[in-house]
Amino acid sequence: MSNQTLDQVDVLIVGAGLSGIGAACHLQNECPNKSVAILESRAAIGGTWDLFRYPGIRSDSDMYTLGYSFKPWKDAKAIADGPAILKYIHETAAEYGIDKKIRFNQKAVRASWSSETAQWTVESQHSETGALSTIVCNFLMMCSGYYRYESGYTPEFPGLEQFQGTIIHPQKWPENLDYQDKRVVIIGSGATAVTLVPAMAETARHVTMLQRSPTYIVSLPAADAVANALRRVLPNRIVYHLTRWKNTLLGVLIYQLSQRRPEMVKRFIKKQLRKELGPEFDIDRHFTPPYNPWDQRMCLVPDGDLLIALREKRASVVTDHIDTFTPTGIKLKSGEHLDADIIITATGLDLLSLGGIALTVDGRATEINQTVTYKGSMLTGIPNLAFVFGYTNASWTLKADLICAYVCRLLNYMDKQGFRQVTPHLSDPEVNDLPLLNLTSGYVLRALDRFPRQGSKLPWRLYQNYFFDTLMIRFGSLKDEALEFKPAEQRVKSDAVAHSLTS
Questions:
Q1: Cβ(23)–Cβ(141) under 8 Å?
Q2: Which of 174, 175, 287, 470 is most buried, judged by most C-beta within 10 A?
């Protein structure tokens, strides 16, 4: 362990993306006596919003819910592009002084908990030099997202090596890619694909979205008319919070309706698409999935940009299976051949739990997939650790804000009561083991065995409902039989020795 250094903070955050910057701001506001540091494996703030550089990158959540609860979104456009979101994160970090607490190019690789000292010892590796550093903390917050940053997921396509054009995964988008007047095939039907198609179709000769199966597509205005109207008469902070609650409520209602009345939601989506695309477009084939709405994430297209590109014939959708790549494109199972100069494999992410960090508790290795989540924020048998994992059916930040506020409450409670460590324990035999995520997307199913589990009832169950979680996480009692609080063993022993010496 060469070139090793050692220092200490109260709370260590792993990841300087949307979640990590938000966590640091919450801690600074609500636990001002706590020292905080952030380890970031890359050389920049922003996480996802700095990593992905493909054309048209944007959020599929509105910024009134993707934005932080403590920093209003001020732009007129609610469905923001990647650069605008990245600017917002940078502004937040600078405004709260969080940018000075970040240690860049430091990938957290191992963390070891000692019950004797009630501390984590976290080892990180410099991404460029390989030098190892060690930092000790009292509480560890994992804000490293849910996927592997180094590479995305690409299936083993037959004949891939034959293709003589350019093949790109959106996660590794090259600078200055020239696709003007080029034939582009985008493999995939998720959020990345439906974003790329209209953006590239502006200058490409033609863009084809090749999908194995359809996705639900919903068109919404990029600007929030209600919020922009309210801004004329109300202060921005009030407008922000009113709109945040409005959009959150609307999202919860749509999700619940999709779960309870899926056929009605299907009919509504198809009716909207027919209105946008016209009667000649085969909506049943290309935009009617075999599953119900919100069994997988629905794709949001702001101002119908994808549908406009399809209607104007600048882009097209092909629903088929790949037989093989050829020197000039892709041959499909149907026998059709798609000619291409550039092929984009928008085939998903490689999911990763807690950034791939190796955890040990009192010398014993911990298997993350053998743990159960407590209130969607802590893990059974692992002391003084919280992780941020957002909603799958709503904005990521809504859940992240709740978790961060909960951690702050927990830390303040422990200080007040004189506790040094807290550990969730599941002892209820009636709680059944369930997967963490209830989505059926391929990239999710491939990786579920790497993630923690959830339980079948509270406080182990995830309900994907912001209003319910607000009551349970933000306002629920910290005195819970599932949580074991205690002082550090070392402190208990030291106090006993001091007492005997003065007796």
A1: yes
A2: 287
Burial 379-415 (b: 16+ CB within 10 A, else e): bbebbbbbbbbbbbbbbbbbbbbbbbbbbbbbbeebe
On whether the CB atoms of residues 136 and 121 are closer than 8 A, the answer is: yes
Buried b (16+ CB within 10 A) or exposed e, 38-53: bbbbbebbbbbbbbbb
Residue 96: left (phi > 0), alpha (psi -120 to 50), or beta? alpha
Residue ranges per structural domain of the chain: 6-150+350-493, 160-345
329 forms beta bridges with: 326, 339
Compute the average pLDDT of residues 421-441: 83
pLDDT tens digit sequence for 146-203: 888 888 888 889 999 999 999 999 999 998 899 999 999 999 998 999 999 999 999 9
- List CB contacts of 264: < 8 A, sequence separation 6 or more: 257
Please name the amino acid found at residue 480. Answer: D
- How far apart are the C-alpha atoms of 415 and 405, rounded to whole Å? 16
For the chain, what's the residue count?
Answer: 503
Helix (H) or strand (E) holding 84: helix 82-95
Place of tokens 């000692």: 114
- pLDDT, tens only, 102-155: 999 999 999 999 999 999 999 999 998 999 999 999 999 999 988 888 888 888
- Helices 236-260 and 262-277: crossing angle in degrees, nearest 10, is 110
Architecture of domain 6-150+350-493: 3-Layer(bba) Sandwich (3.50)
- Asked if the peptide bond before residue 221 counts as cis, ω within 30 degrees of 0, the response is no
- Examine domains 6-150+350-493 and 160-345 and report if their fold is the same: yes
Structure tokens at 332: 């499909």
Distance CA 235, CA 433 (A): 47
Q: Does the pLDDT value for residue 393 go beyond 50?
A: yes
Handedness of CA 401, 403, 407, 413 (dihedral sign): positive
CA angle (368 as vertex; 170, 10 as ends), nearest 5 = 90
DSSP assigned state of 122:
E
CB atoms under 10 Å from CB of 497, counted, come to 10
pTM for the full predicted model: 0.90
CATH code: domain 160-345 is: 3.50.50.60
Three-state secondary structure call for residue 119: strand
CA-to-CA distance for 254 and 264, rounded, in angstroms?
Answer: 11
Judged by DSSP in three states, 7 sits in: strand
> CA dist 98 to 141, 285, 344, 404, Å?
15, 49, 36, 15
